[in-house]
Amino acid sequence: MLNIKIIFKVVLNLLLITCIIIFSSCGEEEEKVPAKPPVLEKQVEVPDTLEPKKEELKEIKKEAVQIGIPEIYEVTEGESLVTIAEKFYDDRLYWFKIFALNEHQIDNWNKIYPGQKLNLPQIDN
């Protein structure tokens, strides 16, 4: 009986030591992993170029468009109010103003015909 008690105590101590080693190694792994990854602040250099900014390009394009807007425009094959608005005003949504000005001769905003003469709104500077 004495041998069984000794063997039981030895096995129990080995089990206890094994548990301590396992749990102590688990805690070390958690400490190695940082809570938040470090954020590197990178300064981005913007090259100084001679290209105009997008806003400047848009203004230049609109001014160029304004110069060439006819008062009356003859529709060609395959055109719609949207394509005409984009062509002259650089804005697809301008089709509504063209439609409003020509409401007396357009039954359906989506149906215009080649040879049809439309009044185009003029932009005031």
The CATH architecture term of the largest domain is Roll
Helix content bin? 40-55%
Q: Look up the CATH topology of the largest domain.
A: Membrane-bound Lytic Murein Transglycosylase D, Chain A
What's the CATH first level of the largest domain?
Alpha Beta
Give me the CATH superfamily of the largest domain. LysM domain
Mean pLDDT over the residues: 76
Strand content: under 5%
Q: Supply Rg.
A: 39 Å
Q: Which geometry do the CA atoms define?
A: rod-shaped
Strands, count = 2
The biggest beta sheet is recorded as: 2 strands, antiparallel
Structural class: mainly alpha
Please trace the helix and strand order, writing H or E for each element.
Answer: HHEHHE
How many structural domains are formed by the residues?
A: 2
Query: Which regions are unreliable across 5 or more consecutive residues at pLDDT < 50?
Result: none
For the largest sheet, list the strands in their spatial order: 1-2
